[in-house]
Amino acid sequence: MNYSLYLIDDRLVIDLRETDKDGLIKGYTGKPEYFESNETFYQNLIGEVNLTDEQLIKIGLEYMNGGLCSYCGESANKVRPSPFMGDTGSMCKDCWDMTKREYAASHDEHIPQFEDYPHWKEEAR
């Protein structure tokens, strides 16, 4: 299926033709992201890309498992809840690994591996 490809803020964005509950457009840049639905979004059409059903499933999983990292503010394909009790934020792998190293060095306590999170949704086979 063909999807429109736009250039927004010097990034290529695939318009997934969906909006969230707040009216934000789902756009894929290699990471799951949301964009405001305004005229600027639709002004810089570059072309079209063809996505297979398998690719769409994988992108959909990134929207379920991914999101915005509360620590660095970047979008990530996977985030998981902070390892600290009382912290309601989420962390990307880079922030998790950095925190893991710092915490081990300063407190001699160990945070589990980022990948050991069993709650991510898996691809249906």
SSE layout and pairing:
Blueprint: E1 2-8, E2 11-19, E3 25-28, E4 32-35, H1 39-43, E5 45-50, H2 53-65, E6 67-68, E7 75-76, E8 80-81, E9 90-91, H3 93-107
Antiparallel strand pairs: 1-2, 1-5, 2-3, 3-4, 6-7, 8-9
Please, could you describe this protein's structure?
With 125 residues, this protein is of the alpha+beta class. It has one domain (2-116). Helices cover 26% and strands 30% of the residues. The strands form three sheets. Strands 4-3-2-1-5 form a five-stranded antiparallel β-sheet. The longest helix is centred in the last third of the chain and has 15 residues, at 93-107. The protein is elongated.
Notable features of this structure?
125 residues, alpha+beta, five-stranded antiparallel β-sheet, 3 helices, 9 strands, 30% strand
